[in-house]
């Protein structure tokens, strides 16, 4: 009797569960996956990848600070083995490099104004990807190598292209990347040794850090500040302002001339160097085919 009761109970329970289960969902179109369009675009060529990175070699130009300030070493490769007695089946190197050599990322902790703010290792990875805003000042730079971006530079770009989106990388397009393989042209020093190259300054940095919410700024030159920033107050005012506000820098970018004013996405991922003030990056941009 006990067994029969248990069986009846089980059948009733099953029937109850079946009655309570939700009605069969009607057939619906599958929910679009957010990355399906990206993968299809990469395969079809509708999304192109632009390499924003300069090559790293012994000639890669590095910033030159005047004495008594210390300078960074550049890039030096050291061979470990090359299919020889030291490694018959493999080729590999180790390298000597500063954090701020070649195409690289500046973290907030790089600057005294941001010394208590994050270094590269503790930044969230979603901070490395953002829409690209590309401000073309090539014409102004061809007249004036000491061009410094101002609030007006940003506002006149916005008048044509719309407001800078949240989380953007703001890139100054100057044509300077064409000089990157020649240190003399890249620094463009005068007889006194003073370098002349374009970049951001106090006004643009103040506007971008207080009136807009960006990831950071990028340039084609050796630093995010224009060369004249070295003798400004505070020195290197874009660094001082950006990093003090927790924002980032990208420098020595390549192929900026291949970026549209809007519509591209930049991915720039620094190495996860513990307490690293910056890091070389392989910066790329996803660009819609024109
Ligand atoms: Mn740097």
From TrEMBL:
GO biological process: L-tryptophan catabolic process to kynurenine
Molecular function as annotated in GO: arylformamidase activity
Listed PROSITE patterns: PROKAR_LIPOPROTEIN (PS51257)
Name of the protein in question: Cyclase
Naturally occurring in which organism (per UniProt): marine metagenome
